[in-house]
Write a structure and sequence with these properties.
Blueprint lengths: L6 H15 L3 E2 L2 H11 L3 E4 L4 E4 L3 E5 L5 E8 L2 E6 H15 L10 H17 L8 H12 L1 E9 L8 E3 L2 E5 L2 H9 L7 H17 L3 E9 L1 H20 L2
Length: about 240
């Protein structure tokens, strides 16, 4: 699936993004010790479809209300990013793109923020040449990530004996074969990756087997598929309750 933006929009967004490259700032010294400590701590990112160990490469700092106001990413020479007016310009860029009809149904705000930081980091480090425009990078990355997803949304408090299809969602029991198939998809070779995958399946089996899930399909990038799936299953539950 190929996506694009009108030439005028691309020119505008590229100009804004190029301006952001020029105003990247080192993280204030007051934050550096805490940032370095965070960077050494791995965190566990869990999805219904997979599990990963990732390292901390991005820090967002909020105010006393928890509203994000600064963002920094790691580089070999330290943390750099935005605060104050520069942060506002960065968020306005990604929020404006997230509202575009060409993008809003296929990529999430979370993905757009991540891809924007990846481009800024690449430009900062020189791994992305100056001739590679922001929108060119963004659209190429999005096109590569968009595919068909089946998303299973776990539900509690609902019991069914057989599959029920309603409002574009399929409600099914979490039977043993669902998790058996996940085991089959785990890495074949013995090692840490297989161990992590099997541990994740075991955890999910313990939490969800015997309960119900809503199954929906979307063509988008992964995080948007999850976002759309939750909304679709919630709407389908409302429709089911009115039967």
């Amino acid at each position: 699936m190929s996506i694009d933006l009108p030439p005028g929009a691309r020119t505008h967004f590229d100009k804004v993004a190029d301006g952001l490259v020029n105003v990247l700032q080192p993280m204030p010294a007051a934050y550096n010790a805490r940032a370095d400590a965070f960077a050494r701590v791995p965190y566990y990112a869990e999805r219904l479809r997979a599990a990963d160990i990732k390292t901390f490469e991005l820090i967002a700092i909020g105010n006393h209300l928890g509203i994000e106001q600064q963002v920094y990413f790691s580089t070999p020479t330290g943390w750099v990013g935005f605060e104050a007016d520069q942060y506002l310009a960065y968020r306005t860029l990604v929020d404006s793109l997230a509202a575009r009809r060409e993008l809003r149904e296929v990529v999430s705000l979370e993905w757009l923020m991540s891809a924007t930081i990846a481009w800024l980091k690449g430009r900062r480090l020189g791994s992305i040449p100056s001739g590679r425009s922001y929108t060119s990078f963004l659209l190429d990355e999005a096109t590569a990530k968009i595919r068909d997803y089946e998303v299973a949304v776990p539900l509690r408090g609902l019991r069914i004996a057989e599959t029920i299809d309603v409002a574009g969602a399929s409600f099914r029991p979490f039977a043993a074969d669902f998790f058996d198939k996940l085991v089959e998809r785990a890495p074949v070779e013995a090692g840490p990756e297989r161990d992590r995958a099997l541990a994740w399946v075991k955890k999910m089996r313990g939490e969800h087997q015997g309960h119900v899930y809503g199954l929906v399909e979307f063509r988008s990038e992964a995080s948007k598929a999850e976002e759309l799936a939750i909304e679709a299953v919630e709407n389908a539950l409302v429709a089911l309750s009115r039967r």
